[in-house]
Amino acid sequence: MSALDAVRARQSWSKVDERSPSREELLTFVAAAGRVADHSSLRPWRLIELRGDDREALGAAIAKAQGDASPSTKPLRAPLLIAVVASYQKSEKVPRWEQEAVASGVAHALSLLLDEAGWGVIWRTGHYTRAKAVAKAHGLGKNEELLGWLYVGGKPEGKKPGRRKAVDARKLVTRMPKAGAKSSSDKKAKKK
Ligand SMILES: Cc1cc2nc3c(=O)[nH]c(=O)nc-3n(C[C@H](O)[C@H](O)[C@H](O)COP(=O)(O)O)c2cc1C
């Protein structure tokens, strides 16, 4: 499949079954996804593989973050969760937002590779994503922040994920405004 076809075909799967890629299969995809553009090659990211009981530990941490009495069952919605961690490196040249962009790029590329290989994936977050209890459960360092989790499992047979609207590229690809012209955000603000 061409990259164009793979990107066009990718969709998120909110419901997956109990099958999951092996660690070895996952490592192959991560090595490829890690080839995204990375200013100064800082590798400002890492991933944490959550399987089995790890998901219960996350459920307990979510409950702690939310002040709930019983563990969240959300992490049990897939057999494999991949926590995406921005792991900020000291750099004079590369600010945090650029490093977060790299970590995010890895997660998008990994989602695409998993989807193309036949696995169901959805990237999820929650207001607890950056809570202390959740960071502690993942063993994050002071220089690290979570970007959420890729929920991964088998694509259930006979099911299809939801369809999203097509992307209107003509509207989204514009040119620089002429000098003195009002920006589109100014025009929108005036309408309100
Ligand atoms: C950083 C990030 C966080 C997201 N968090 C959630 C989430 O918590 N719950 C959810 O239903 N979708 C979430 N999404 C959106 C889904 O991953 C998915 O893109 C969306 O359901 C649209 O489906 P599609 O990818 O097939 O177009 C998130 C996406 C991103 C990039």
Q: Which stretches are poorly predicted, pLDDT < 50 over at least 5 residues?
A: none
Query: What gap, in angstroms, lies between the N and C termini?
Result: 46 Å
Write down the overall mean pLDDT. 95
Morphology: globular
Q: Give, in order, the helices and strands.
A: HHEHEHEHEHH
- Largest sheet descriptor: 4 strands, antiparallel
Helical residues, percent = 25-40%
**Radius of gyration from the alpha-carbon trace, in angstroms:** 19 Å
Count of DSSP H/I helices: 7
Count of individual beta strands: 4
Binned strand content: 15-25%
In short:
With 192 residues, the chain is of the alpha+beta class. It has helices spanning 3-9, 23-33, 53-66, 96-116, 132-138, 169-172, 184-191; strands at residues 45-51, 80-87, 119-124, 144-154.
Report on the architecture of this protein.
- This protein is of the alpha+beta class and 192 residues long.
- Helix content is 38%, strand content 17%.
- It contains seven helices and four strands, in the order H-H-E-H-E-H-E-H-E-H-H.
- It has helices spanning 3-9, 23-33, 53-66, 96-116, 132-138, 169-172, 184-191, and strands at residues 45-51, 80-87, 119-124, 144-154.
- Strands 1-2-4-3 form a four-stranded antiparallel beta sheet.
- Helix 2 crosses helix 4 and helix 3 runs antiparallel to helix 5 (132-138).
- The longest helix has 21 residues, at 96-116.
- The relative contact order is 0.20.
